[in-house]
Known about the structure:
- The chain contains 19 helices and two strands.
- It is mainly α and 462 residues long.
- A two-stranded parallel sheet has the order 1-2.
Amino acid sequence: MKLNKEKKTLRARLSGLKDASPPSSSERDKTPLERARETLRREGESTRRAGRRLETLGREVLFAVGVGLTAGVVGAAFQASMNAASRAFAANYAGGFPWALLFLPAVGLAIVALYNAARLSVDAGTDRVVASLTSEKKASLWLGPLIFLTSTLTQFCGGSAGREGAALQLGGCVGLGAGRLFRLDATALKIAILCGMSGGFAAVFGTPLAATVFALEIACVGVVYYPALLPALIAALVGSAIPASLGLKPFYYELPDFPETSVALVGKALLFGALCGAVCVFFCAAVRGTTRSFFARFPNDYFRVAFGALCVIVATLSLGTNVYNGTGIRLVEEALAGRSASSAFFWKTILTALTLGAGFKGGEIVPVFAVGATFGCAAGTLLGIDPTLGAALGMIGVFCGATNCPLTSIVLSVELFGAQNAVLFAIVCGVGFATSGRVGLYRSQRMLYSKIAMGKDDERTM
C-alpha cells in the first residue's frame, strides 16, 4: 500500500516536470551574473512598488485625518448650535405663549429665498450627497453652510427635524471641498466624500464604527465599498474625538440585564422585526407622500413652505405639547425609560412629514429613532418584551429599514447599547430590512440586489 502511494507521488512529480515549459534560448545564454542581476532588478522593482503603495497609503491617511478634523470641528459647532436652538424653543414654549413657533412661516420663506439665491433646489439635501456617490451629479459646496444655518432656524422655531442627516450633508460637503481643492480624480473624490460623511456623522452622534460602516453601505444596497474602509474609519475616529474633547457627550444608554436569549424570545424578535419593517414603510410613505402632495398642490416654493408651516403650527397647538417638535431625542429618552404613549410614533411621523415635506431643513435619522423607540416601547409591552428593550430594538429596527443599512444598524446597536443583546438586535435588523421592501429615506440610494432573493435586481433607485 505504501509502495503504491510512493509510485503515485513520483508519477505526479514527473508529470509536473513534463508540463513545465523549458527555459528560452535567451535565458539559457545568460551567465550566472546576468541572472543574478535580473533577479535583483525584479526584487528592486517589487520593493519600489511596495514603497509607492506605502507612500499612497500615507497620503490617504493624512488626507483622512485632515477631513476628519475639519468635519469634527464643523460637526461640533453644528451640534452646539442645534442644542442651543432646541433649548431656546423649549424654554419659549414652556414660558407661556409660543411666539417662536409662530415665526416658522417666516423662517420657511427665508429658507426658500436662501436656496434660490444659491441656485439650489429646495429639496436638495442628503439625497444630493448620495447622488454624488452613485452618479455624475455633483453636490454644491453651498449645501454645507446652508444646511447649517437653515437646520438651526428650523429647530429654533419648532420644526420636527433631526440633525444627523444634516451632519451627513455637512461632512459630505467638507469631503467634496477637500477633494476639489486637491484636484482628486473621480474615484479618490468619492472616497473623500465618504470620509467627510463618516467624520460628520461620528462628530454629531459619537459612534465612529457605525459612522464608518454607514459611509460604506449607504450608496448601494447590497454593496459595501471596502476601498474607503481605512480612510473612513480614520476620519470617523478623528471626527468623534473633537466634540468629546469639547465636552459634548454622545448619546449612550446602558440597557439593564435581561434574561438570556431563548427560543420564545427569538420568536418574539422575529415578529417584532416584521412590525418594525411595517412602521418603516409607514414613515417613509408618509414623508414621501406628503412631499409629493405639497409639491403637486403648491408648485410655488414660497406658498408650499408657508402652508406647511401653518400645518405644523396647527398640529402642535392642537396636540397641546411640544414633545413632537424638534429632533425627538426627548421621545427616545422617555421610551427607553419605559414611558411612551402608544400613539407617539404616529404623531411624530405626521409632524416630521409636514416639516420635511414642506421644505424645512434638518435630518431624518433622529426622528426615525424617535418613531422606532416609541413604537417599540408600546409593541414590546404587547408582545411581552420589556418596554426598555422593546424601545431599543424598535429604534434600531426602524432605522435599519429606513436606511437599508443592516450592518450599520447592528454595529450601531452595540455602540449605543452594548453587546449583551446583539443577537436580538441582529434578528430584528435582518427581518426589518427584509420586510421593508424597496422603501428608504434616500431616493438616490441604488438597490443592486434583491433583499430576499439571491439573484441580481434591477438598478432603479428607490
